[in-house]
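Figure 2 data, in text form.
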Amino acid sequence: MSVTIFSLIVPIALTGLMLGPQATQRPWPASAPAVDEIIFKGFPFPRDIMRDGLEKALGRPASVSEKELNGRHSSRLQFTGLAVELFAEPIGTRGTVSSIELSDNRWRFPAKLHIGSTRAEMIKLLGSPDIDRSAEAIYGCYDCVWDDKIHFVFEGDRIKSMNWDFYVN
Protein backbone atom coordinates (compact mmCIF):
# COMPACT_ATOMS: atom_id res chain seq x y z
CA MET A 1 0.00 0.00 0.00
CA SER A 2 2.79 2.48 0.88
CA VAL A 3 4.52 1.81 -2.44
CA THR A 4 1.33 2.74 -4.25
CA ILE A 5 0.93 6.02 -2.33
CA PHE A 6 4.60 6.86 -2.93
CA SER A 7 4.26 6.17 -6.65
CA LEU A 8 1.28 8.56 -6.77
CA ILE A 9 2.88 11.35 -4.71
CA VAL A 10 6.26 11.54 -6.50
CA PRO A 11 4.88 12.49 -9.96
CA ILE A 12 2.55 15.06 -8.41
CA ALA A 13 5.41 16.61 -6.39
CA LEU A 14 7.71 16.72 -9.41
CA THR A 15 5.00 18.34 -11.54
CA GLY A 16 4.52 20.98 -8.85
CA LEU A 17 8.26 21.72 -8.84
CA MET A 18 8.38 22.02 -12.61
CA LEU A 19 5.33 24.27 -12.82
CA GLY A 20 6.21 26.39 -9.79
CA PRO A 21 8.11 29.66 -9.99
CA GLN A 22 11.66 29.19 -11.17
CA ALA A 23 14.60 31.05 -9.66
CA THR A 24 15.87 33.71 -12.00
CA GLN A 25 19.22 35.38 -12.14
CA ARG A 26 19.01 39.10 -11.52
CA PRO A 27 19.27 41.06 -14.75
CA TRP A 28 22.58 42.70 -15.45
CA PRO A 29 22.46 46.47 -15.68
CA ALA A 30 23.94 48.17 -18.71
CA SER A 31 26.81 49.30 -16.45
CA ALA A 32 27.88 45.73 -15.55
CA PRO A 33 30.87 45.75 -17.96
CA ALA A 34 32.13 49.02 -16.41
CA VAL A 35 31.92 47.50 -12.90
CA ASP A 36 33.82 44.38 -13.97
CA GLU A 37 36.42 46.47 -15.81
CA ILE A 38 37.21 48.46 -12.66
CA ILE A 39 37.31 45.30 -10.56
CA PHE A 40 39.62 43.43 -12.94
CA LYS A 41 41.59 46.17 -14.76
CA GLY A 42 41.43 49.20 -12.49
CA PHE A 43 44.92 48.74 -11.06
CA PRO A 44 48.35 48.86 -12.75
CA PHE A 45 49.77 45.39 -12.00
CA PRO A 46 48.66 41.79 -12.60
CA ARG A 47 46.81 39.88 -9.88
CA ASP A 48 49.27 37.00 -10.08
CA ILE A 49 52.23 39.21 -9.22
CA MET A 50 54.73 37.99 -6.66
CA ARG A 51 56.09 40.26 -3.91
CA ASP A 52 59.40 40.93 -5.68
CA GLY A 53 57.53 41.91 -8.86
CA LEU A 54 55.23 44.20 -6.90
CA GLU A 55 58.23 45.94 -5.31
CA LYS A 56 59.85 46.33 -8.74
CA ALA A 57 56.66 47.94 -10.05
CA LEU A 58 55.88 50.15 -7.03
CA GLY A 59 59.16 50.56 -5.16
CA ARG A 60 60.06 49.66 -1.61
CA PRO A 61 57.07 49.66 0.77
CA ALA A 62 57.08 51.84 3.89
CA SER A 63 56.18 48.76 5.94
CA VAL A 64 55.37 45.08 5.54
CA SER A 65 53.32 42.92 7.87
CA GLU A 66 53.29 39.14 7.59
CA LYS A 67 50.73 36.59 8.75
CA GLU A 68 49.66 33.00 8.31
CA LEU A 69 46.13 32.49 7.04
CA ASN A 70 44.75 28.96 6.77
CA GLY A 71 48.28 27.59 6.55
CA ARG A 72 49.30 30.05 3.82
CA HIS A 73 51.67 32.95 4.19
CA SER A 74 50.37 36.42 3.31
CA SER A 75 52.05 39.82 3.27
CA ARG A 76 50.55 43.30 3.48
CA LEU A 77 52.74 45.87 1.77
CA GLN A 78 51.98 49.40 2.92
CA PHE A 79 52.98 52.32 0.70
CA THR A 80 51.95 55.95 1.14
CA GLY A 81 48.32 55.97 -0.01
CA LEU A 82 48.33 52.32 -1.09
CA ALA A 83 48.21 48.93 0.62
CA VAL A 84 48.40 45.59 -1.19
CA GLU A 85 47.81 42.23 0.45
CA LEU A 86 49.10 39.19 -1.36
CA PHE A 87 49.86 35.54 -0.81
CA ALA A 88 53.43 34.30 -1.06
CA GLU A 89 52.69 31.80 -3.79
CA PRO A 90 50.36 31.80 -6.79
CA ILE A 91 47.11 29.97 -6.08
CA GLY A 92 46.02 28.18 -9.23
CA THR A 93 44.83 30.67 -11.80
CA ARG A 94 43.31 33.02 -9.21
CA GLY A 95 46.53 34.92 -8.61
CA THR A 96 48.08 36.12 -5.41
CA VAL A 97 46.67 39.59 -4.74
CA SER A 98 43.78 39.39 -2.25
CA SER A 99 43.15 43.10 -1.61
CA ILE A 100 44.18 46.57 -2.70
CA GLU A 101 43.43 49.78 -0.82
CA LEU A 102 44.03 53.02 -2.72
CA SER A 103 43.73 56.38 -0.97
CA ASP A 104 46.06 58.66 -2.95
CA ASN A 105 46.13 59.64 -6.64
CA ARG A 106 49.95 59.60 -6.70
CA TRP A 107 49.51 56.02 -7.91
CA ARG A 108 48.50 55.97 -11.57
CA PHE A 109 45.61 53.52 -11.51
CA PRO A 110 43.71 53.06 -14.79
CA ALA A 111 40.32 52.96 -13.03
CA LYS A 112 37.98 55.51 -14.59
CA LEU A 113 37.19 56.83 -11.09
CA HIS A 114 39.81 58.34 -8.82
CA ILE A 115 40.24 59.61 -5.30
CA GLY A 116 38.17 62.79 -5.21
CA SER A 117 35.62 61.67 -7.83
CA THR A 118 32.05 62.33 -6.74
CA ARG A 119 29.33 59.85 -5.84
CA ALA A 120 27.35 61.16 -8.85
CA GLU A 121 30.28 60.39 -11.18
CA MET A 122 30.49 56.88 -9.71
CA ILE A 123 26.78 56.24 -10.23
CA LYS A 124 26.87 57.68 -13.76
CA LEU A 125 29.68 55.28 -14.71
CA LEU A 126 28.71 52.19 -12.67
CA GLY A 127 24.99 52.50 -12.00
CA SER A 128 23.45 51.91 -8.58
CA PRO A 129 25.71 50.03 -6.17
CA ASP A 130 24.77 46.64 -4.73
CA ILE A 131 25.16 48.10 -1.24
CA ASP A 132 24.75 51.85 -0.79
CA ARG A 133 25.49 53.53 2.53
CA SER A 134 26.24 57.17 3.24
CA ALA A 135 29.96 56.48 3.77
CA GLU A 136 30.43 53.48 1.45
CA ALA A 137 29.22 51.96 -1.82
CA ILE A 138 29.96 48.36 -2.80
CA TYR A 139 29.78 46.74 -6.23
CA GLY A 140 30.18 43.02 -6.87
CA CYS A 141 31.57 41.44 -9.99
CA TYR A 142 28.92 40.44 -12.53
CA ASP A 143 30.93 38.23 -14.87
CA CYS A 144 32.83 36.04 -12.43
CA VAL A 145 32.35 32.91 -10.39
CA TRP A 146 34.00 34.29 -7.27
CA ASP A 147 32.84 37.06 -4.96
CA ASP A 148 35.19 39.83 -6.09
CA LYS A 149 34.14 43.35 -5.05
CA ILE A 150 35.12 46.98 -5.12
CA HIS A 151 34.31 49.28 -2.21
CA PHE A 152 34.20 53.06 -2.54
CA VAL A 153 34.61 54.87 0.78
CA PHE A 154 33.35 58.46 0.89
CA GLU A 155 34.21 61.58 2.78
CA GLY A 156 31.18 63.75 2.18
CA ASP A 157 30.28 63.31 -1.49
CA ARG A 158 33.81 62.48 -2.70
CA ILE A 159 35.65 59.17 -2.96
CA LYS A 160 38.18 58.94 -0.13
CA SER A 161 39.44 55.44 -0.93
CA MET A 162 38.88 52.56 -3.34
CA ASN A 163 39.26 49.03 -2.01
CA TRP A 164 39.45 45.96 -4.21
CA ASP A 165 38.53 42.77 -2.39
CA PHE A 166 39.34 39.55 -4.26
CA TYR A 167 38.17 36.10 -3.33
CA VAL A 168 41.14 33.79 -2.90
CA ASN A 169 40.33 30.12 -2.36
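Caption note: The longest helix spans residues 2-19.
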